[in-house]
């Protein structure tokens, strides 16, 4: 049983106004006090930071600075912002290292702004966050469950659907486009973490419009891939696979994986960014489907952002607890909790594979 004596002692100190005032005056202690105050202020103002970023993205500010620094007044004119108001945006974005305000009144990219160039995955997520931001306008309603249906739930139509996901073609197209763009952050990391050399067949359950299946098929030309997803998404996957000229390598199967039969006898079954979308009962149904689809000795591959005590794990926790709540089902899980569920579904030898950026995805393998 973990001891929380240190946390309790620290909280008693930090909770005391007298201690906080004193700490600011004591050498060395004042450094901790200052860091604590800064972190608290960053927490209070995080919503402003996201909106500065969102505004820069909506106005294509980073793209406009791709070729180098620009005169502040002419950039403001191009953004259709009055120069004095644009100055506030530029200065705020510079404070967040999205931009740089140079002494000669030119604006340049900051290090975060530069890292967003051609980073369609993150840019698409920033744009998509407008929906969640809307749902967060009344956070108490969201946590009480009285804000349904949220805008997020209207997009992610399968979330929380107990009697079969509804076939909303427009929503399926919108979320599949977002997934396809953001999959570019994951596929390489997953395929670097797990060699598919010894597998002949892969079934990608909930494979979306095929970004991961296509990346796997391209990297490992000997492997036969089948992608299974809900009918509205399967149609999109079929077109994407055809367009990529991979129709001989990738079969697409329209199925609700929790109730329809899936192709069986596979060496490898992947669940990429699937389990965190669902509550435990549906997770068990999906794992059972993966188990049935594998031949004995076959491998299950689970990849998704995973919660935990590390900095990455805590970022995942804070983000996905709210994201998935607004969406209508699921939760971020630690690798340990996922391993429990996977074992309960009849798999053995659950093991972890390291990824380059664990905040984007963790990877677990298990054997049928
Ligand atoms: C978050 S997306 C992930 C897509 C893809 N694996 C990726 O990482 O880009 C979840 C996918 O699971 C699919 N899905 C949800 N419920 C499903 C079910 N019961 N059967 C099959 N696919 C399902 C959705 O249509 C969606 O494409």
What key attributes describe this structure?
alpha/beta; Arc Repressor Mutant, subunit A; single chain; 2 domains; Rossmann fold; 368 residues; binds S-adenosylmethionine; seven-stranded mixed β-sheet
Describe what you observe in this structure.
The chain is α/β, with parallel strands linked by helices and 368 residues long. The chain has two domains: 111 residues, Arc Repressor Mutant, subunit A; 229 residues, Vaccinia Virus protein VP39 (Rossmann fold, 3-Layer(aba) Sandwich), CATH 3.40.50.150. The protein is 51% helix and 15% strand. The protein contains 17 helices and ten strands. A seven-stranded mixed beta sheet has the order 6-5-4-7-8-10-9, with helices on both faces. Strands 1-3-2 form a three-stranded antiparallel beta sheet. Strand 7, helix 15 and strand 8 form a beta-alpha-beta unit. The longest helix is centred in the first third of the chain and has 30 residues. The protein is globular and about 65 Å long. The mean pLDDT is 94. The structure holds S-adenosylmethionine. S-adenosylmethionine binds next to helix 11, helix 13 and strand 5.
